[in-house]
C-alpha cells in the first residue's frame, strides 16, 4: 500500500500539466529517436568502411526511425518532426502560427542532442576511422555522418531544386495520407505508410544531397559538428564532402 502511494505521488509530481510543454517534450523525444537511428546508421556505415552497412541499410534505418518517431509523438504533438511540416500545417490553418517558432527550436534542439548521443556512442570508431582528425572533406571525412553535403557535381541551383522537390514530395505524400477525403490508411498504420513514403523518396532522390528534407534534421547536427571540433567548414560549400549520409531519414 505504501509503495502504491509512493508511486502515485511520484506520478503526480512528474506529470506535465502544460499542453505546450507535453507537445514540446514529445517533439524533442521523437526527433531524438529519429536522429539516433538515422545518424547511427550513417556512422556505422562510414566508420566500418561499408563492411557493416551501406546506403540501403542506412535508408532502411532512416525510414524505420521515422515510423518509430511518429508512433512516439503522434498522439501528443502530431509528430511534425520537421519545420517544413509545421510550416505546411500553419499555412493550412491546422496549426497555430505562434507555436511554429517554438516547434522549430525544439526540433533543432532534439537533433542537436541526438547528434551528441551518436557521437558519444561512436566516439572511438569516429576517431579511429579519421586517424585522430575531424575533417569535413577528403577520404577520411566524418562530417557527413551527421549532416548532409552535396555531391561534387552538384551546382547550388540544382541543390536548391533537389531540396525543394524532395520536401514537396514528402509534404504532398503526408497530406494525402492524412486527408480524410482520400482512401484511408487503416487506423494505426499511418506511421508505417509515412515511413514507406520516406523510403521511396530516399531511394529515388538521395544521391544529390543525401535527402535531408528537414531543416532541423540538418541544422541541429551541423551545429553540433561545428561546436564538437569540425569547425566552420561544416557551413561551407566545398567539394569532396563524401556521401552526405547524415541526411538519410
UniProtKB/TrEMBL annotation:
Belongs to the MIP/aquaporin (TC 1.A.8) family. It comes from the Eukaryota. Aquaglyceroporins form homotetrameric transmembrane channels, with each monomer independently mediating glycerol and water transport across the plasma membrane along their osmotic gradient. Could also be permeable to urea. Also participates in cell permeability to H2O2 and H2O2-mediated signaling. In skin, transports glycerol to the epidermis and stratum corneum, where it maintains hydration, elasticity, and supports lipid biosynthesis for barrier repair. In kidney, contributes to the reabsorption of water, helping the body maintain proper fluid balance. It catalyses: urea(in) = urea(out); H2O(in) = H2O(out); glycerol(in) = glycerol(out). Keywords: Cell membrane, Glycoprotein, Membrane, Repeat, Transmembrane, Transmembrane helix, Transport. This is Aquaporin-3. It is found in: Cell membrane. GO terms for molecular function: glycerol channel activity; urea transmembrane transporter activity; water channel activity. The chain crosses the membrane at residues 24-46, 58-79, 100-122, 160-178. The keyword Metal-binding does not apply. Its main location: membrane. Homotetramer; each monomer provides an independent glycerol/water pore. Could also exist in other oligomeric states. It is a multi-pass membrane protein. GO terms for cellular component: basolateral plasma membrane.
Amino acid at each position: 500500500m505504501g509503495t502504491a502511494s509512493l508511486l502515485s505521488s511520484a506520478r503526480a509530481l512528474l506529470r506535465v500539466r502544460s499542453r505546450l510543454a507535453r507537445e514540446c517534450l514529445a517533439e524533442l523525444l521523437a526527433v531524438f529517436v529519429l536522429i539516433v537511428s538515422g545518424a547511427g546508421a550513417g556512422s556505422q556505415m562510414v566508420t566500418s568502411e561499408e563492411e557493416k552497412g551501406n546506403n540501403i541499410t542506412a535508408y532502411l534505418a532512416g525510414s524505420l526511425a521515422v515510423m518509430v518517431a511518429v508512433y512516439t509523438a503522434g498522439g501528443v504533438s502530431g509528430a511534425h518532426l520537421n519545420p517544413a511540416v509545421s510550416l505546411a500545417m500553419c499555412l493550412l490553418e491546422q496549426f497555430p502560427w505562434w507555436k511554429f517558432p517554438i516547434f522549430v527550436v525544439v526540433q533543432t534542439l532534439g537533433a542537436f542532442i541526438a547528434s551528441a548521443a551518436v557521437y558519444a556512442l561512436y566516439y572511438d570508431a569516429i576517431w579511429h576511422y579519421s586517424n585522430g582528425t575531424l575533417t569535413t572533406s577528403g577520404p577520411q571525412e566524418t562530417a557527413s555522418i551527421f549532416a548532409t553535403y552535396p555531391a561534387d557535381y552538384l551546382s547550388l541551383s540544382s541543390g536548391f531544386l533537389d531540396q525543394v522537390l524532395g520536401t514537396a514530395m514528402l509534404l504532398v505524400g503526408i497530406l494525402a495520407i492524412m486527408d480524410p477525403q482520400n482512401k484511408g490508411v487503416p487506423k494505426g498504420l499511418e506511421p508505417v505508410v509515412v515511413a514507406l513514403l520516406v523510403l521511396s523518396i530516399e531511394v529515388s532522390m538521395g544521391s544529390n544531397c543525401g535527402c535531408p528534407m528537414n531543416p532541423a534534421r540538418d541544422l541541429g547536427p551541423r551545429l553540433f559538428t561545428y561546436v564538437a571540433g569540425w569547425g566552420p567548414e561544416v557551413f561551407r560549400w566545398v567539394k569532396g564532402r563524401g556521401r552526405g549520409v547524415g541526411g538519410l531519414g
